Amino acid sequence: SPLSVQASAEERRKNKRAAAGNASPQFVLVISTDMDHIVCRRNLLEASGFQVIAAFDLKRGLKQLYDTLPSVVLIDDSLLFNSGEEMRQQLLEKTATDFIPVIVTAKDMNPADAKNVYASGVMDYIPADKNSEEISALISNRARFCDYVNRAVLKDELTGAYNRRFLNRELSYRLQRIRENEHDGLAVALIDLDHFKQVNDLYGHAKGDEVLQAFVQECGTVAENEDILCRYGGEEFAFIFNRPSVKEAQLKLSALRVRLNERLIDSRSDRSVPIQFSAGIRVIAADEETRHVDELISEADDALYKAKASGRNQDCL
Ligand code: GH3
Ligand code: MG
Ligand code: MG
Ligand code: MG
Questions:
Q1: 153-171: buried (b, 16+ CB within 10 Å) or exposed (e) per residue?
Q2: Which candidate among 42, 154, 299, 317 keeps its CA 20 to 30 Å from the CA of 246?
């Protein structure tokens, strides 16, 4: 089919997630019953560097929306407004949550409809035959907005690690994929820096901030492709490892300990102290009946508490 998309959904999401950090291809989801319209938009958008994902009805469009997190959704007004209230709400809620602009195209523009279209949460309402250069520029503009906002909303400003909002979103997505048997499982390490208050007390808050940044940098050196570090809050982090192996998680954490030990807070000072941490590891196997993100985190937190109670600077299960 001329509309087949080569990259898998997983691949597209990966790109999309990377886009929260760097420039990478942006996806436009075109939902339309009109094959000619889709082909025409696809040619236009691909020429501008976008990748196009197509769906012929709202049901399939919704599936693509969840799987690929596009930067813009372009949809026929007839599909958005005649496919049933429930699916329309689902599209509008999901795009609002992920800050994905929705552009509605209409074959016959009715100015009287515009108010209702905008009131529903749609960002742009345009004629389907609008000049193609103008459409390209509009879509680039909206895609930029989407990526900018997502970056601002999903990353922690101090350290550049992902934030808790991203953690919740990413973990629930992965748990869902595990339930659908499309994911091999994962491990989460909940990490809390040891005696961090002392770091602030000894060196000042600014130095404490630097330590948090250094910690995140070192985590980057042990992370593999799909591993993700999130700042959970304060001096607590969640490291998501993409394989359900306790052993691998432990190996990465000990590699991290070695790196941190070599990187003292202030090597010129005789009061130098190494950055140490305690961690609680929770593994979710592919066949486990996984539950809610909160439960997963809370179990990792229990293990973290054990590590603290057992003398810190160690991991527990
Ligand atoms: P332990 O976890 O080993 O029990 O001891 P702790 O000293 O780390 O204990 P606690 O969790 O109570 O203290 C965490 C400290 O981290 C308190 C807070 O001032 C500091 N902190 C949290 N966020 C930041 C931050 O963004 N920058 C700096 N500099 N300090 C922070
Ligand atoms: Mg803490
Ligand atoms: Mg604490
Ligand atoms: Mg602490």
A1: ebbbeebebbbbebbebbb
A2: 154
